[in-house]
What we know:
By secondary structure, the chain is of the alpha+beta class. It has 4 helices and 7 strands, in the order H-E-H-H-E-E-E-E-E-E-H. Strands 1-7-6-5-4-3-2 form a 7-stranded antiparallel β-sheet. Helix 1 crosses helix 4 and helix 3 packs across helix 4 (140-170). The longest helix has 31 residues, at 140-170. The protein starts with a helix and ends with a helix. It comes from Tenacibaculum lutimaris. InterPro entries: Polyketide_cyclase/dehydratase (IPR019587), START-like_dom_sf (IPR023393).
Amino acid sequence: MKKIKIILGIITALILAFFLTGLVVQEVVYTNEVTVNKPVKEVFSDFQNVELMKQWMPEVKSIETLEEKPNKVGSTYKVVVENQGKLVTMTEEVLAFKENEKLTFHFDAENMLKTDDYVFTSEGNTTKIVQTTTCTSESYVMSCLFPYFKGALKKMSQQYLDEFKKASETHN
């Protein structure tokens, strides 16, 4: 009986810690970077190339323009991605666009709200891309999960940047 009380106490403490996570951590923020061996103008163009995107983000199945704004800011798109064999639809909005310098996208994928801010810096004949990502959720349970998956989310974003580097450097 004493062992059962100890086990139940430990389980209760873990559940309580999990749900307190959502109160303490409101968002998850991480940064990744990559240096591409091409000038910034070409890298910025490659980054927006939907056909090239299929090479470095093969999960993206389609991108449909919902509304296109003249300066890009405020433009919205319907993006369909494949996640573990299941198609997921999300909305993408351009929050910032500064030619050859900055792109910021906001994604609404049901319970995950994600903002990716990309800064492009010219370093001679190479380009440094710094990505800062913020993840939040409208779902309390989901917001409790994000801190525990921060490492996996960061790793996945870095893999995408590394794949973009390869695709961009081989693209003419």
